[in-house]
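The records we work with from here on pair a chain with its fold. A complete example follows; check for yourself that the lines match position by position.
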Amino acid sequence: MADQDGPMRDGEPSNPFVSVPIEIVVAVGKARPLIRDLINLGENAILKLDKRVEDPVDLYVGDRLVARGQLEELDGDQQGQLGVRLTEIADLKNGLG
């Protein structure tokens, strides 16, 4: 059986775009310092963000919000690596929130 995306394979439509990599940006927060304060920042300075550690992070593809999640540190062979546990997935037809 075929559909507009091409022939079916294992219950999924065949689509050549599914193997194209995309970049997902994870936004953990924003800061709005004055330029003079930004210029005066030095090594080991801390730039205060508008979010707390336990607040959800936003995942973007381009400028489109596609999901939200919680930052987590991975275990095992990937110990120390950051990951995101997805907690909310966008309805890509209508967007999040």
